[in-house]
C-alpha cells in the first residue's frame, strides 16, 4: 500500500506543479503590460552587447541618465542572436520600442514596414543631420527618402601593422605603401625577408571585400536587388587578391589555422591585418605585449576606398510610446551624450563635432578609421544582401584554395542567388 | 477481455497519457499544422502581414532547388556513415563495460562526460582540436600518416568528415549508457544456460545479447537517424551559417534556418522544406522498422 | 584453456576502454587546462597543453564581472530539476501505456509521437513563440518547462524499455487486486529503476543544455539560464575563450555531481524478478 500512496503523491505533485507553472506565468506577464501616463512609461530597448564590458557599462549609464532626466523607465532586451530573436520578436509583436538596426539589414526592415519614419519628430525638434558623417547617416534613409534611424556609432577598416616584424624586415611604418599595386609588391618583399611569417591576414567575407569589388565601377547588387557578383569588372577587381592569396602574400585567418583575425594578428606571426576599430580593444585586452599600430588602407585602383559599418537607433512602427521613443533616440544621439558614450565605450562617434571634441583626428590609433568615414562605402546593398552574402561566403574559401576558379565560383554563386531571389520574389 | 475490463483499461490509459496528449496538442501538433499551412502559402509574417495561397508551389520549388538536393546528399552521406558507426561502437563499449570488469563505474563515468556539455561548446573545443596546428594534425603527422597538415575545417573535401567525427565522439557515450541500462535488464539466467551449453563469448553476444537488446537498438537507431537528419549546430558554427565552403556543410536544417530566420518573406518555403525533411525521416524510419526485429504494435513476433 | 581465453579478452577490454576513454577525455582535459590560461595562450598555435602558469583570473572575472552568474546557475538548476521530475512521471506513464495498455488509437498515438520527434526544431520556434505569448508565459520559467513537460523521445525510450519487460509479474499483481496505477508504481517502476535513472539524466541534460528556448523566451537578464549567460562572453566580433572555458567548467560541475549521485541506480543491476 505504501508504494501505491507514493505513486499517487508523485502524480499529484507533478500535476500541481504544472498548474502552478501556468499560474506563475500569467502573473509575471501581466506586470509587463501597459502603463501609459507620463513618467510611468517604460520603454523596451533592444540591442546586442557589443565588443567590450566597458561598452555595456557605458550603455547602461546612458539609460540611467535618461531615466533620471525624463522619468521614463527603460527595460533592456539583450539580443544574443540578433537574426533569430528579432525575427521572432517581429512576428510575435513583441519587438522593443527602439532597437539597433545594422545598416545591412536596414533595407529589408524598412521595406517590410517595420520601422517608424523619424522625419516628423526630427522636424518638430529641429534635428539637424549636417553634423553626421554623410555615409553613416544616409545608410538609414529609406527608398522613400525618409529617415528611419540615427547612426549611433560606426567603424571603418584600418590597416593594423606589427611594429616588431616591420623593424625586423628593415622597414618603418612610414614605408608602408599608399597604393594597392605598391602594397602587393611590399608584401612580396616581406614574405622573402620574413620566412614563416604571413604578410597579411584577412577575412573571406563579403562585408570586407565589397569596396574592392566595387572599385572598378560595378556594383555587387544591381538596381533590382539581384546579385551581380559575376560582373567582369568585379572579377577583375578581385583577381589580384586571389592571386596574392595563392602566392601566400595574404591568407585568411582560417587558412593559417586561427579562429579569428585578431588571434592570427595577435600571434605575432602576421605583419598586417585589415580589421575594424573593434580590434583595438581586443588587442589591448588580450595581447598586451604585442606592439602594433594602425594606418589607412592603401588606395584601391587609384582611389581611396574603405567600408563603413554602422548601426542605428531605430523606432518600432508598432511602438505604443512613439514620442518617448523619439525622446530617447534624440537623447542618445545628441552631441553631449554621444561624446560621453563614445569616450567610455571607446567607439567612434558618428557626429563630426564629437570626433573633433574627442581629438580623434590626432589619436594615433583611431585617426585612420576616422579619416575613412568621409569616403567609405556603407555596408548596405538592397534587400537581398543576407542571401547574396551567404552565397559569396559559401564559395569564396574554395576559390582561394583553387578548387573552383574565381569566374566559375562567382558565376555559380550569382546564378544560385538570383534564382532564389526570383523564386521568393522578395 | 470483457467489456467492463476494456472500459476500465480505457480509463486507465486516458489517465496515463493525458499529460502527454495535452502537451502534444498545444506545443507540437498545433505548430505542425500551422507549419503545414505556411508551407502552402507565400507568407510575410513581419510588418505588413500577408498570406498568399500558392498550393504546392513551395514544394515544387524545393524539388527543383539544387541547394536542397545538395543538402539532401550531404545529409544522406552523413546519416549513412554516422548512424552505423555510432550504434555499433556504443553497443560494443556497453558490452565490454557490462562484462563484469573492474573499474566499471569509473570507466562509465569517464566515458559519459562528453554528454554533459552542450553541443555548441563541444563544437568550439573541437574546432581548436581539428585546426591546422591542432593536436589531431600533430598526432597524425607524428605517426607519419601524412607530412603536410590538413586544414580539416576549411577544406570542402574534409570538413564534413571532421564534423562526423565530432558527432560520433559526442553521441556514442549517450547511446552507450542507454545500451548499458538495457543490458542490465537482460535475464542473467539466459547467459548461464548458454554457459552450460558451452557457448563462447561471441556466440552469446550474437545469440542472446543482440536479440534481447533489439528494442533498445531500435530506439538507438531511430534516435540516431532523427538527430543526424536534423544536423544543425555543428555545420552552423563551423560555417558561420553559410553552409560552406562550397556547400560542403550545407544540411537541410541549415537551409531551413537560412530561409526562416535570415531572410524575410521565405517562411513558407522554409516550412515546405521542413515538411519534406520530416517526410523523408519518417519514410526511412518506417523502412528501418520493417526490417528490424520489432513490429509496430510492440507485441513481438 | 577457458581461463586463458578469459584473461585475454579481459586485457583486450581494458585496452579498448582505456584508449577510448583517452579519446573521450582529451577535449575536456584541453578545456580544463585552457580555463587557467590567458586568452593569448589559448589561441596561440602550437602552445603546450599545460598552462604556462595556472591563473585563477578567468574564474575571478566571470564571478566579479557578471554579478548575475550565480543567479544563472540557480535558475538553471531550478528549471532542470523541476522539469526533470515532471518528465520522469509523465514520460514513464505514457511510455508504459504505449507499451502495455490496450486502447483505441494507441498505434496512431505512437505514430504521431514518432512523427513529432522528427519535425525539425527550427520550424516550430515561431509557432511556439506565438502560443507562449497567447498563454502569457513569455519571460518566465514556465515558458521553458511547460512545452517540455513531456519529451517524446524519452516516452519512446521508456516504451522500448517496457516492451521487453515480462508481463507475468504484472498479471499476478492484477490478480492480487492491484489497480493500474498501483501496478505501475509498485511493480513496474521499481523494476525500471535503471531505465528511469537513465531517462532522468538525459532529460536533465536536455534542460541544462537547452539554448534555443531560453534565447527566445527569456528576456530579463536575471532570469537567464547558464547557457544563455555563457553567450555573454561572446562579443560581436569575437569570443572570449578564456572566460568561456572557465564558465564551461563550472557548468559541467553540477552535472557530474548529479551523475555520481544517480550512478548507484545504474548499478542496482535489477535482475528481473528480484531473486538474483
From TrEMBL, chain A:
<keyword id="KW-0813">Transport</keyword>
<dbReference type="GO" id="GO:0055052">
    <property type="term" value="C:ATP-binding cassette (ABC) transporter complex, substrate-binding subunit-containing"/>
</dbReference>
<feature type="signal peptide">
    <location>
        <begin position="1"/>
        <end position="22"/>
    </location>
</feature>
<protein>
    <submittedName>
        <fullName>Sugar transport system, sugar-binding protein</fullName>
    </submittedName>
</protein>
<dbReference type="Pfam" id="PF13416">
    <property type="entry name" value="SBP_bac_8"/>
</dbReference>
<comment type="similarity">
    <text>Belongs to the bacterial solute-binding protein 1 family.</text>
</comment>
<keyword id="KW-0762">Sugar transport</keyword>
<dbReference type="GO" id="GO:1901982">
    <property type="term" value="F:maltose binding"/>
</dbReference>
<keyword id="KW-0732">Signal</keyword>
<dbReference type="InterPro" id="IPR006059">
    <property type="entry name" value="SBP"/>
</dbReference>
<dbReference type="GO" id="GO:0015768">
    <property type="term" value="P:maltose transport"/>
</dbReference>
<dbReference type="GO" id="GO:0042956">
    <property type="term" value="P:maltodextrin transmembrane transport"/>
</dbReference>
TrEMBL record, chain B:
<keyword id="KW-0472">Membrane</keyword>
<dbReference type="Pfam" id="PF00528">
    <property type="entry name" value="BPD_transp_1"/>
</dbReference>
<keyword id="KW-1133">Transmembrane helix</keyword>
<comment type="similarity">
    <text>Belongs to the binding-protein-dependent transport system permease family.</text>
</comment>
<dbReference type="InterPro" id="IPR051393">
    <property type="entry name" value="ABC_transporter_permease"/>
</dbReference>
<feature type="transmembrane region" description="Helical">
    <location>
        <begin position="110"/>
        <end position="132"/>
    </location>
</feature>
<keyword id="KW-1003">Cell membrane</keyword>
<feature type="transmembrane region" description="Helical">
    <location>
        <begin position="213"/>
        <end position="232"/>
    </location>
</feature>
<dbReference type="GO" id="GO:0055085">
    <property type="term" value="P:transmembrane transport"/>
</dbReference>
<feature type="transmembrane region" description="Helical">
    <location>
        <begin position="159"/>
        <end position="180"/>
    </location>
</feature>
<feature type="transmembrane region" description="Helical">
    <location>
        <begin position="12"/>
        <end position="37"/>
    </location>
</feature>
<feature type="transmembrane region" description="Helical">
    <location>
        <begin position="78"/>
        <end position="98"/>
    </location>
</feature>
<dbReference type="GO" id="GO:0005886">
    <property type="term" value="C:plasma membrane"/>
</dbReference>
<keyword id="KW-0812">Transmembrane</keyword>
<dbReference type="InterPro" id="IPR000515">
    <property type="entry name" value="MetI-like"/>
</dbReference>
<keyword id="KW-0813">Transport</keyword>
<protein>
    <submittedName>
        <fullName>Sugar transport system permease protein</fullName>
    </submittedName>
</protein>
<feature type="domain" description="ABC transmembrane type-1">
    <location>
        <begin position="72"/>
        <end position="288"/>
    </location>
</feature>
<dbReference type="InterPro" id="IPR035906">
    <property type="entry name" value="MetI-like_sf"/>
</dbReference>
<keyword id="KW-0762">Sugar transport</keyword>
<feature type="transmembrane region" description="Helical">
    <location>
        <begin position="267"/>
        <end position="288"/>
    </location>
</feature>
Amino acid at each position: 500500500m505504501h508504494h501505491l500512496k507514493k505513486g499517487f503523491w508523485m502524480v499529484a505533485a507533478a500535476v500541481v506543479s504544472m498548474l502552478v507553472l501556468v499560474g506563475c506565468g500569467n502573473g509575471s506577464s501581466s506586470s509587463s503590460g501597459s502603463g501609459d501616463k507620463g513618467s510611468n512609461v517604460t520603454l523596451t530597448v533592444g540591442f546586442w552587447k557589443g565588443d567590450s564590458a566597458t561598452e555595456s557599462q557605458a550603455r547602461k549609464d546612458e539609460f540611467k541618465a535618461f531615466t533620471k532626466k525624463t522619468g521614463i523607465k527603460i527595460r533592456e532586451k539583450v539580443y544574443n542572436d540578433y537574426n533569430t530573436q528579432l525575427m521572432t520578436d517581429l512576428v510575435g509583436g513583441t519587438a522593443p520600442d527602439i532597437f539597433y538596426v545594422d545598416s545591412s539589414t536596414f533595407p529589408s526592415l524598412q521595406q517590410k514596414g517595420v520601422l517608424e519614419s523619424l522625419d516628423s519628430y526630427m522636424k518638430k525638434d529641429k534635428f539637424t543631420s549636417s553634423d553626421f558623417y554623410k555615409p553613416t547617416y544616409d545608410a538609414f534613409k529609406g527608398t522613400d527618402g525618409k529617415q528611419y534611424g540615427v547612426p549611433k556609432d560606426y567603424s571603418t577598416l584600418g590597416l593594423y601593422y606589427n611594429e616588431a616584424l616591420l623593424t625586423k624586415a628593415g622597414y618603418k611604418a612610414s614605408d608602408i605603401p599608399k597604393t594597392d599595386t605598391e602594397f602587393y609588391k611590399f608584401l612580396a618583399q616581406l614574405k622573402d625577408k620574413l620566412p614563416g611569417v604571413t604578410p597579411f591576414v584577412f577575412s573571406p567575407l563579403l562585408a570586407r571585400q565589397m569596396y574592392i569589388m566595387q572599385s572598378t565601377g560595378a556594383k555587387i547588387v544591381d538596381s533590382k536587388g539581384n546579385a551581380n557578383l559575376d560582373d567582369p569588372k568585379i572579377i577583375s577587381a578581385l583577381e589580384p587578391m586571389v592571386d596574392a592569396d595563392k602566392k601566400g602574400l595574404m591568407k585568411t585567418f582560417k587558412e593559417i589555422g586561427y579562429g579569428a583575425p585578431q588571434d592570427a594578428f595577435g600571434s605575432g606571426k602576421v605583419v598586417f591585418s585589415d580589421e575594424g576599430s573593434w580590434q583595438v580593444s581586443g588587442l589591448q585586452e588580450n595581447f598586451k605585449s604585442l606592439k602594433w599600430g594602425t594606418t589607412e588602407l592603401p588606395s584601391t585602383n587609384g582611389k581611396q576606398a574603405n567600408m563603413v559599418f554602422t548601426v542605428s537607433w531605430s523606432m518600432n512602427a508598432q511602438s505604443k510610446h512613439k514620442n518617448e521613443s523619439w525622446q530617447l533616440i534624440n537623447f542618445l544621439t545628441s552631441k553631449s551624450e554621444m561624446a560621453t558614450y563614445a569616450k567610455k565605450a571607446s567607439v567612434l562617434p558618428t557626429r563630426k563635432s564629437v570626433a573633433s571634441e574627442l581629438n580623434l583626428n590626432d589619436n594615433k590609433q583611431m585617426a585612420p578609421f576616422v579619416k575613412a568615414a568621409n569616403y567609405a562605402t556603407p555596408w548596405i546593398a538592397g534587400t537581398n544582401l543576407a542571401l547574396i552574402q551567404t552565397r559569396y561566403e559559401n564559395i569564396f574559401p574554395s576559390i582561394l584554395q583553387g578548387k573552383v576558379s574565381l569566374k566559375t565560383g562567382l558565376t555559380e554563386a550569382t546564378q544560385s542567388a538570383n534564382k532564389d531571389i526570383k523564386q521568393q520574389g522578395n | 477481455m470483457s467489456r467492463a475490463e476494456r472500459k476500465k483499461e480505457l480509463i486507465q490509459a486516458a489517465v496515463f497519457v493525458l499529460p502527454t496528449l495535452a502537451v502534444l496538442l498545444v506545443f507540437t501538433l498545433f505548430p505542425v499544422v500551422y507549419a503545414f499551412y505556411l508551407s502552402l502559402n507565400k507568407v510575410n509574417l513581419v510588418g505588413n502581414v500577408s498570406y498568399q495561397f500558392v498550393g504546392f508551389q513551395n514544394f515544387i520549388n524545393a524539388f527543383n532547388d539544387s541547394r536542397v538536393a545538395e543538402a539532401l546528399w550531404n545529409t544522406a552521406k552523413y546519416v549513412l556513415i554516422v548512424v552505423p558507426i555510432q550504434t555499433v561502437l556504443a553497443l560494443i563499449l556497453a558490452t565490454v563495460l557490462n562484462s563484469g570488469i573492474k573499474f566499471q563505474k569509473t570507466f562509465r563515468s569517464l566515458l559519459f562526460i562528453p554528454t554533459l556539455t552542450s553541443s555548441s561548446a563541444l563544437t568550439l573545443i573541437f574546432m581548436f582540436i581539428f585546426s591546422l596546428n591542432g593536436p589531431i594534425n600533430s598526432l597524425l603527422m607524428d605517426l607519419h600518416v601524412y607530412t603536410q597538415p590538413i586544414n580539416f575545417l576549411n577544406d570542402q573535401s574534409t570538413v564534413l568528415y571532421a564534423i562526423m567525427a565530432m558527432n560520433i565522439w559526442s553521441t556514442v557515450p549517450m547511446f552507450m549508457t542507454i545500451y548499458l541500462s538495457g543490458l542490465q535488464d537482460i535475464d542473467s539466467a539466459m547467459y548461464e544456460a548458454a554457459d552450460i551449453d558451452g557457448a563462447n563469448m561471441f556466440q552469446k553476444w550474437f545469440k542472446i545479447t543482440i536479440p534481447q537488446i533489439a528494442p533498445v537498438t531500435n530506439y538507438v537507431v531511430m534516435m540516431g537517424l532523427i538527430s543526424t537528419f536534423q544536423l544543425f549546430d555543428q555545420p552552423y558554427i563551423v560555417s558561420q551559417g553559410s553552409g560552406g565552403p562550397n556547400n560542403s556543410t550545407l544540411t537541410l536544417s541549415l537551409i531551413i534556418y537560412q530561409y526562416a530566420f535570415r531572410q524575410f518573406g521565405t517562411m513558407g518555403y522554409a516550412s515546405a522544406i521542413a515538411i519534406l525533411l520530416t517526410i523523408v525521416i519518417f519514410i526511412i524510419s518506417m523502412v528501418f522498422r520493417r526490417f528490424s526485429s520489432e513490429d509496430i504494435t510492440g507485441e513481438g513476433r | 584453456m577457458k581461463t586463458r581465453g578469459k584473461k585475454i579478452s579481459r586485457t583486450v577490454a581494458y585496452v579498448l576502454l582505456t584508449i577510448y576513454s583517452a579519446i573521450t577525455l582529451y577535449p575536456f582535459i584541453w578545456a580544463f587546462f585552457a580555463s587557467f590560461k590567458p586568452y593569448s595562450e589559448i589561441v596561440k598555435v602550437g602552445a603546450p597543453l599545460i598552462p604556462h602558469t595556472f591563473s585563477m583570473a578567468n574564474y575571478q572575472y566571470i564571478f566579479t564581472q557578471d554579478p548575475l552568474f550565480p543567479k544563472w546557475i540557480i535558475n538553471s538548476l531550478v528549471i532542470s530539476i523541476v522539469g526533470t521530475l515532471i518528465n520522469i512521471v509523465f514520460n514513464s506513464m505514457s511510455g508504459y501505456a504505449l507499451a502495455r495498455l490496450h486502447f483505441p488509437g494507441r498505434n496512431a498515438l505512437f505514430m504521431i509521437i514518432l512523427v513529432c520527434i522528427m519535425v525539425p526544431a527550427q520550424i516550430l520556434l515561431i509557432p511556439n513563440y506565438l502560443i507562449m505569448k497567447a498563454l502569457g508565459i513569455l519571460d518566465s520559467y514556465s515558458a521553458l518547462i511547460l512545452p517540455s513537460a513531456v519529451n517524446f523521445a524519452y516516452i519512446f525510450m521508456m516504451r522500448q524499455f517496457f516492451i521487453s519487460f515480462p508481463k507475468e509479474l504484472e498479471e499476478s499483481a492484477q490478480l492480487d487486486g492491484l489497480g493500474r496505477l498501483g501496478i505501475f508504481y509498485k511493480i513496474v517502476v521499481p523494476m525500471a529503476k535503471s531505465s528511469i535513472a537513465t531517462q532522468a539524466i538525459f532529460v536533465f541534460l536536455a534542460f541544462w543544455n537547452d539554448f534555443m528556448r531560453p534565447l527566445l523566451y527569456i528576456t530579463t537578464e536575471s532570469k537567464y539560464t547558464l547557457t544563455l549567460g555563457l553567450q555573454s562572453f561572446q562579443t560581436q566580433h569575437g569570443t572570449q575563450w578564456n572566460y568561456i572555458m572557465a564558465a564551461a567548467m563550472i557548468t559541467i560541475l553540477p552535472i557530474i555531481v548529479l551523475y555520481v549521485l544517480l550512478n548507484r541506480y545504474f548499478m542496482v543491476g535489477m535482475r528481473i524478478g528480484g531473486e538474483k
